[in-house]
Amino acid sequence: MTILVTGGAGYIGSHAVQRLLNDGHRVVVLDNLDRGHREAVDALRGMEGVGADQLSFEAGDIADGGLVGALMRDHGVDTVMHFAALAYVGESVHEPLRYHRVNTAGAISLLEAADGAGVSRFIFSSTCATYGEPGADEIPIHEGVVQRPINPYGASKLAVERVLADYSAKQRADGKAFSYAALRYFNVAGSDPTGLIGEDHDPETHLIPVILQAALGKRDGVTIFGTDYATEDGTCVRDYIHVCDLVDAHVAVMNALEPGDARLYNLGIGRGYSVREIIDAAKRVTRKEFPVREGERRAGDPPVLYAEAGKIGRELGWKAKYTDIDEIIATAWRWFEKHPDGYAS
Known about the structure:
By secondary structure, the protein is an alpha/beta fold. The protein has a single domain (2-344), classed as NAD(P)-binding Rossmann-like Domain (Rossmann fold). Helices cover 40% and strands 17% of the residues.
C-alpha cells in the first residue's frame, strides 16, 4: 500500500512511518515542520532495507488542498494516517481559533483533498480529551462514555470525529466505499527501542520527558501538581501507552478496514500509574536523583483517567505489549541519553 502520513515528522507520526516502512509499504510524509523534525524523516530514510523510492517527504500544510490532492494523485495514495495537529491543552484554551483552524478545518481540507483524489481509507488520530472529565463510575473509560470535552483541543478533535461520521454516512448513501477509524489515545510514552527516533517537543509538557530532562540536568527538578487527590498516594493517575504499541494498533486497524467501515477505539493499557509511581520508576531506570517539589493542583486535572481498551482486542486481536512502566520509561531514556538536546544533539 501507499500511505500518506500527515505529521509524519512528529513524535507519533515518525514512529508510524518507521513501522510502515519496515512492513514494506510506500510512505508519503506531509509535515509543515512547525513542530515536526526533518531529522526524524532523514533518520528513517537511512534505515537498512528502505528503498530509494519507498519514502517521500513534502514540507507542506494539510490546509493546502491543491498540494495535498496532487501528492495523493502523483503517488497513488490509497490510505491516509492523519496525525498532524496542535496538541497542547493549555495552549488551546488561550488560542481556541488556532486550534479549530488547524485541527478541525485542517482535517476537513484533508478530507476534501482525499475525496477529490478518490482516497477512501482514513485513520484519524483522536484523543481521550474528547471525553472531558468522566465521573468516577465511568472509569475505566470505554468507547460508549459520553464525550464532553472541557477544552478546545478536545473539542477540535471531537469535531473531526463528527465530520468523519457525517462524511462517511453521505458516502454510503451515495454508494461509495469510504472507510475510517478514529483512535482515541490516552497518554503516549516511550520511544523506538533502538533509539533511532524519539520524543522532542518544544515546549515539553509531557510528564515522562519532563522527568527525564530533570534526570539529565536539563531542568532543575520536577513539580507534582497536587498531592491530595483521592488516590492511593494522593497524586493523579493516568494510563500510559507505549508509542510502538500505539502504532501497532494503527496498523491492525489499517489492515482490518473494510469498505464502509466506521471504527472507534480507545488505545491504552487499561490501568493507571500515579505521578509518584512515574517519578519512582524514572529514578530506578535512570539511577539518577533530582529534586521533586510539591505544588498546588492544576485546574481541570481529574484524579484518575485510564482506558477500557478491550474493544480493539476483541475485534482485532490487538493488545499492548508494554505494560510495565519501567520498561516503557527505559525506551524513552535510551533516546534521551543519546539525544539530550533532542534532534539538535
